[in-house]
Amino acid sequence: MKRAVRVLTAHRPRPLPSVLLALTLFVGGFAAWTGQDWYRAAHDDRAAYAAQRDEALAAGEQAVQNLNTLDHRDLNQGLDLWESSTAGELHEQLASGRDEFAEQVKAAKTVTTARVLSGAVTELDDRAGRARVLVALRVTVRASDGAKTDKDSRMLGELTRTGGRWKLSALGQAPVGGAPTG
Questions:
Q1: Which residue from 62, 88, 119, 180 could staple onto 169, CB 3.0 to 4.6 Å apart?
Q2: What is the CA radius of gyration of the chain?
Q3: What pLDDT digit, counting tens, does each position of 128-171 carry?
Q4: Do residues 133 and 168 lie in contact, with contact meaning Cβ atoms separated by under 8 Å?
Q5: Per-residue pLDDT tens for 3-31?
Q6: What's the rounded Cα separation, in Å, for the pair 70 and 52?
Q7: Edge-to-edge strands of the sheet including 148-162?
Q8: For the packed helices 98-108 and 88-96, what is the interaxial angle rounded to 10 degrees?
Q9: CA-to-CA distance for 87 and 135, rounded, in angstroms?
Q10: Contact 91/83 with Cβ under 8 angstroms?
Q11: What number of other Cβ atoms are within 10 A of residue 117's Cβ?
Q12: Model pLDDT, residue 3
């Protein structure tokens, strides 16, 4: 009787190789599926476009904030920051009028600070290296007598990519409400 039991157990299939084969097939399929997903995400132009949009927005917000911040006690550093944040015609205007503007700020003895409230990219042409941003900010002006004035404003900026960096090439007030855009 013992032999009969042994014979029956000797012919039973072993479960371990079957389980290992099934597990290997499952892991291989999962790796192929996730690898394909990763490859699609890595080669998707939308991700690169979104990164450029985010980079342009950050640079635009910072440049608009820079151009609305100036301290009469450290004028050269502030004006240098203005020039390093700009490109093109705006840069030329700031550089050519720097001395005259510096005299006006020194005489007024004002400290102007800006804080970005929100911003958005309204247009982006990544291939041409141009973008437009809309930035809402709060500008605080402290006069020499200590009086403080806050003003909220919306600015429209145009950015140009130069040397791999986004710089402000134009800046103006955004129309409010139903005002014509001209």
A1: 88
A2: 31
A3: 999 999 999 999 999 999 999 999 999 999 999 999 999 999 99
A4: no
A5: 555 555 555 667 778 888 888 999 999 99
A6: 29
A7: 70-71, 111-125, 130-142, 148-162, 165-173
A8: 60
A9: 18
A10: yes
A11: 13
A12: 55
- Show the tokens assigned to 114: 């800006």
Query: Cβ–Cβ contacts within 10 Å for residue 63, how many?
Result: 27
Candidates 182, 150, 156; CA nearest to 168 is 156
CB burial readout 85-112, b (16+ within 10 A) else e: bbbeebbeebeeebeeebeebeeeebbb
160, 169 Cβ separation under 8 angstroms: yes
d(CA 148, CA 169): 30
- pLDDT tens, position by position, 67-125: 999 999 999 999 999 999 999 999 999 999 999 999 999 999 999 999 999 999 999 99
Q: Name the DSSP class of 16.
A: H
